[in-house]
């Protein structure tokens, strides 16, 4: 099932894969079915949906894509868009994420996709990982159907996870506490998950789970992909067992969080097109404030527009990157929300907005110590933070 907003004059198509975690065994899939039915079944889906962020048809909210044909594919497969197994005696549930995408493509060809110039496969969270797993397959499918002229690209938002060591190791009991590698290991078997052939060949049999991690699959991809990733992703921190609620953060946690930002930044250094703000958040491209976030003075819609242009230009003559139109944007400041354009932070208990200083104090941020590390007077550091410089 999918939602479609046609834009008759346009030859650009944007297909969006919804996110929403996953489940990887009978128990947690049963729980998911009881508590989050819309992520397991289409039964209660609304007849229409309103597109926001990059799916909005308002030019103010969506400066460069508002006029495209928009397709929203809801996430009911719970398998990070990788599954290819139907319901069986052994398995109560069907996991058909990879097949859903193929079927939607097949059907859209008859609705105008056949004359498309550009198809952008986008997704957030599990949908962002789904983009990395499916973008090449979509390109191959269209080629096999005889549509070689369609340029297929990917936009992966908040789906670039690290298989790092958890802050506190926990047993793999449920979706939230299970370390990502272990969850995916179990999931692939349970969903009969498929990963792209080129990535699979890099790893031993049984090690296909590696392909769910952006920095490992990215070098094997043929299609151009733009990666959008918060340096301090809330979902990553959750699976790493760093819980930022109520109690101030201990020093160990604070160092862990900063290190996570560094590790993530490292994995993005060879990614041609990327946008990575130093914020604590999760998902961005379908939020209506997505135009406000900037890295080094460039907004995300602008960076995507520059990427579009660079792909268009390079098709012509492989010129140097466009002046004043950057596509590799990664914050270099070292802690969460050191970028003044980050989304507002709310206290998870009271729902109240916090400014950067309140937030950093809440995080157990030691102003004296940090000022010393940066070689600044404490008052100067506080001034910089509060003036959002």
UniProtKB/TrEMBL annotation:
PANTHER family: NOTUM-RELATED, PALMITOLEOYL-PROTEIN CARBOXYLESTERASE NOTUM. Pfam families: PAE. One of its GO terms (biological process) is negative regulation of canonical Wnt signaling pathway. This is NOTUM carboxylesterase. The gene is Notum. Belongs to the pectinacetylesterase family. Notum subfamily. GO terms for molecular function: palmitoleyl hydrolase activity. It comes from the Eukaryota.
């Amino acid at each position: 099932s999918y939602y479609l907003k046609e834009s008759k004059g346009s030859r650009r198509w944007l297909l969006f894969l919804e996110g929403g975690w996953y489940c990887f065994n009978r128990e947690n899939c049963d729980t998911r079915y009881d508590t989050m039915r819309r992520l397991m079944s289409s039964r209660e889906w609304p007849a229409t949906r309103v597109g926001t962020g990059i799916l909005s048809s308002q030019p103010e909210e969506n400066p460069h894509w508002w006029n495209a044909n928009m397709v929203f594919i809801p996430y009911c497969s719970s398998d990070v868009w990788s599954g290819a197994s139907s319901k069986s005696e052994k398995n109560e549930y069907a996991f058909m994420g990879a097949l859903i995408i193929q079927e939607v493509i097949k059907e859209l060809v008859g609705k105008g996709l056949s004359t498309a110039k550009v198809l952008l496969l986008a997704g957030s969270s599990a949908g962002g990982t789904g983009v990395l797993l499916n973008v090449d397959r979509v390109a191959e499918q269209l080629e096999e159907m005889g549509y070689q002229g369609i340029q297929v690209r990917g936009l992966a938002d908040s789906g670039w996870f690290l298989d790092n060591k958890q802050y506190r190791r926990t047993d793999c009991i449920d979706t939230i506490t299970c370390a990502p590698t272990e969850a995916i290991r179990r999931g692939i078997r349970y969903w009969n998950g498929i990963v792209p052939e080129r990535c699979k060949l890099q790893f031993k049999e049984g090690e296909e789970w590696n392909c769910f991690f952006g920095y490992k699959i990215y070098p094997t991809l043929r299609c151009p992909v733009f990666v959008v990733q918060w340096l301090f992703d809330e979902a990553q921190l959750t699976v790493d067992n760093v819980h930022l609620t109520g109690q101030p953060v201990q020093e160990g946690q604070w160092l862990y969080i900063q290190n996570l930002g560094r590790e993530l930044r490292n994995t993005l250094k060879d990614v041609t097109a990327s946008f990575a703000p130093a914020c604590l958040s999760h998902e961005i491209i379908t939020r209506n404030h997505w135009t406000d976030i900037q890295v080094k003075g460039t907004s995300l819609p602008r960076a995507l527009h520059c990427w579009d242009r660079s792909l268009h230009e390079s098709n012509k003559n492989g010129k140097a990157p466009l002046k004043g139109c950057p596509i590799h944007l990664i914050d270099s400041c070292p802690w969460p929300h050191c970028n003044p354009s980050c989304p507002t932070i709310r206290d998870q208990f009271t729902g109240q907005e916090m400014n950067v200083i309140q937030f950093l104090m809440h995080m157990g941020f030691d102003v004296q110590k940090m000022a010393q590390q940066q070689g600044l007077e404490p008052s100067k550091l506080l001034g910089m933070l509060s003036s959002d410089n």
